[in-house]
Amino acid sequence: MSLLLSGRDTPTINLVFNPVNRAQDGFVKSTASRGLFSGAFGSGKSVALCTKGLKLSQDYPGNFGLICRKVRATLYQTTLKTFLELVCPKEIIADYNKTEGLVTLTNSSQILFGGLDDPLKLGSLNLGWAGIDEAIESNEDDWKMLEGRL
């Protein structure tokens, strides 16, 4: 991932994704409304999910997306760390509310990192996109709840 900045106050963003394999590249570039990327340990699933979410948030300013996992605490230790350290350039983060798990980008898009372990907190969200990391931990009810938020 690289970043190109230009202009005085508003950066021009050129995010470059360097996939580790064709499956990862296909997932990130897909325009399908629903997608699944499965693979072995180290195949880049979390990076692909975070990259796809960042791309949707950059392509549609003011978008509100969710990256989740069954248990919020586990998400913070893994996926959120991947997003902040490997995927999202610090220059495009306007604000990061650690308590809420909410990243606000310079284009006013927001990405919420949450757990499916407390569905009441997610039940009233109006989402532009959503992604589940380690979906094998989730069940059909989790999927249906997210579908209803889109």
From TrEMBL:
<feature type="domain" description="Phage terminase large subunit N-terminal">
    <location>
        <begin position="37"/>
        <end position="150"/>
    </location>
</feature>
<dbReference type="InterPro" id="IPR035412">
    <property type="entry name" value="Terminase_L_N"/>
</dbReference>
<dbReference type="Pfam" id="PF04466">
    <property type="entry name" value="Terminase_3"/>
</dbReference>
<dbReference type="InterPro" id="IPR027417">
    <property type="entry name" value="P-loop_NTPase"/>
</dbReference>
<protein>
    <recommendedName>
        <fullName>Phage terminase large subunit N-terminal domain-containing protein</fullName>
    </recommendedName>
</protein>
